[in-house]
């Protein structure tokens, strides 16, 4: 059976591409895989990840097989498709909570997101999706979850600022390190004293 059309789900919307860069799939690149017999489409690149969850929040079949976790299902103690503890799981659970769909999603072990889960979650940079969650969480009255996310994002911004300064110094010494530096909010803790002393951005932990 030959296919005449293939749709590739977008990773991020157009605006987010400027932050993430090339990441697995790209709205400008994917159509170039088309041929005379088959067209390739990059689907829904106008939607953010939060908006995509809104599309399936009321789709029972989609909720029954939704998997976002990076870990293999056999490693999950809960026996569900998602571990419910990693940043991808918690991000998706928060998105579903915003749209009222978390309680009906059977692929996560938890039906609620707690402050403890947020505090033990590691947010990695670039943290594109998490800033989108703060205002919607506040709109549904979950300031208790929005605030710790903001704190984690501030830590990442501070680390990015510090690393940008360090990279400038490294380049002056002809360092071969030109790769992408991935950081997380957990890396903030060892240098908390330095950050507080420098008062970068006027922020204190």
Task: Record the strand order, biggest sheet.
Answer: 1-2
Based on DSSP secondary structure assignment, what is the total number of beta strands?
A: 2
Q: What are the low-pLDDT stretches, counting only 5+ consecutive residues below 50?
A: 168-182, 196-205
Radius of gyration: 20 Å
* N-to-C span: 59 Å
List keywords for this structure.
8 helices, two-stranded parallel sheet, mainly alpha
In short:
With 205 residues, this protein is mainly alpha-helical.
Q: How would you explain this protein's 3D organization?
A:
The chain is mainly alpha-helical and 205 residues long. It has a domain of 47 residues. The chain is 40% helix and 5% strand. The protein is built from 8 helices and 2 strands, in the order βαβααααααα. α6 runs antiparallel to α7. The C terminus is likely disordered.
How would you summarize the topology of this molecule?
Blueprint: E1 5-9, H1 14-20, E2 39-43, H2 49-56, H3 60-64, H4 87-98, H5 115-119, H6 131-139, H7 143-172, H8 192-198
Parallel strand pairs: 1-2
């Amino acid at each position: 059976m030959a296919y005449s059309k293939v749709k590739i789900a977008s990773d991020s919307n157009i605006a987010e591409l400027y932050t993430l860069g090339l990441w697995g799939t790209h709205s400008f690149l994917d159509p170039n895989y088309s041929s005379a017999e088959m067209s390739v489409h990059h689907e829904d690149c106008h939607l953010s990840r939060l908006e995509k969850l809104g599309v399936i929040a009321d789709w029972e079949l989609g909720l029954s097989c939704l998997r976002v976790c990076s870990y293999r299902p056999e490693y999950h103690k809960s026996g569900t498709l998602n571990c419910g503890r990693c940043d991808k799981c918690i991000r998706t659970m928060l998105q579903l909570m915003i749209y009222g769909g978390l309680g009906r999603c059977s692929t996560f072990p938890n039906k609620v997101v707690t402050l403890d889960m947020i505090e033990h979650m590691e947010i990695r940079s670039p943290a594109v999706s998490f800033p989108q969650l703060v205002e919607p969480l506040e709109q549904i009255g979950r300031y208790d979850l929005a605030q710790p996310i903001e704190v984690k994002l501030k830590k990442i911004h501070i680390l990015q600022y510090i690393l940008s300064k360090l990279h400038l110094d490294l380049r002056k010494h002809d360092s071969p390190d030109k790769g992408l530096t991935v950081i997380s909010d957990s890396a903030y803790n060892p240098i908390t004293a330095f950050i507080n002393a420098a008062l970068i951005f006027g922020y204190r932990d």
